[in-house]
């Protein structure tokens, strides 16, 4: 039991260690990088604010997914891994991963359309494709776990503390 608690605590710490630096980058580094790029490339300075808006919009599903992962670890720690709330949490994580993939695809298409051979954007496109791939893997894993947890909760005897979530179209 002690080992399970230690591993859950470690995973919660990992989630926090992922979220805090990304939040710091969004708050401190991203605005400065956008303004420095606007100074270096005055011909595309008008894209500074749309870029920031897009970057922050991309961070919203990321942080929602991190919060839901933290919540899922709390459910597992409390012995409610196979509850309707866990299934709902996995559903939200899946939707966040799909949202990130869609937003990255839109960003790649926008980069291609805006720069049309004027600059080398191969690195940006590659990073975007890697992000789409990682988000797709996370969405697939969340979907498989969601189905597994849902089947398990349907097989469990009815317990009030496990099935206290109202039906809301889980899948």
UniProtKB/TrEMBL annotation:
Pfam family, one: DUF2975
Residue spans crossing the bilayer: 9-31, 51-76, 96-115, 121-145
Family matches, as InterPro entries: DUF2975
Keyword line: Membrane, Transmembrane, Transmembrane helix
Domain of life: Bacteria
Record's protein name: DUF2975 domain-containing protein
Organism this protein belongs to: Sporosarcina koreensis
